Amino acid sequence: QGLRRIAVKAPAEQAYVAMAFRVPGMERVDALTDGDRDALALMVLSAVLSGYDGARLERALSQGPQRVADSAGSSAMVTGRGPSLFLLSGVPADGKTVQQVEDALRAEVARVAREGVSEAELARVKTQWIASSVYQRDSVHEQAQDLGSNWVQGWPLDAEERLLALLRTVTPEQVQSVAARYFGDDQLTVATLLPQPLDPKAKRAAPATPMRH
């Protein structure tokens, strides 16, 4: 319990911060538990924050004269095996610190918890989600990948269809509720990349010499 921090020093041009919150996972697509419903709402929250060009994190952190980040994003990793996590991440803008980015990321989630989201914003996210899903189905590779993933998880083969139908039912109140309940310090691990000078003398690996037969 309690906030945990990890700092990594490595040659890099820019700093980076990733915040991982432990959240409920999506374990089934029928006979949903409260945890399953919260996982659905967290997926929608992530889409509200960074699911389209000009979404909340981009507007608040990466645009305008007061911007603190070159990039910022979110991801709800709530399906599949392994720990279920909600990720917030960002790259500080020139002259800004990882702490400023971290504070700004959390402020946007807190804003959703405080003010909620509009029906129009939610409708936009859902429409984009459905369009993206339809587009992906044009790819045989994507279809095969989805079927394989569903089989591994023990989900029905039509799980993607069911999941989309469930996502359509998520309400603004549910999104506001999960934003208020799952983003405290007790659920949080923060990883920070502290950039070190790049070695100008470092040589790139030589290309492999083709074998002759």
Shape: globular
Note the run of SSEs as H and E.
Answer: EEHHEEHHHHHE
How many strands in all?
A: 5
Terminal Cα span? 59 Å
> Strand order of the main beta sheet, please?
1-5-2-4-3
Structural class: alpha+beta
CATH topology: Cytochrome Bc1 Complex, Chain A, domain 1
What's the number of structural domains?
1
The helix content, as a percent range, equals 40-55%
Number of helices, where a helix is a run of at least 4 consecutive DSSP H or I residues: 7
Assigned CATH architecture = 2-Layer Sandwich
Low-confidence regions: 209-213
Strand content: 15-25%
Query: In CATH's first tier, which class applies?
Result: Alpha Beta
Rg, alpha carbons: 20 Å
Mean pLDDT: 85
CATH superfamily: Metalloenzyme, LuxS/M16 peptidase-like
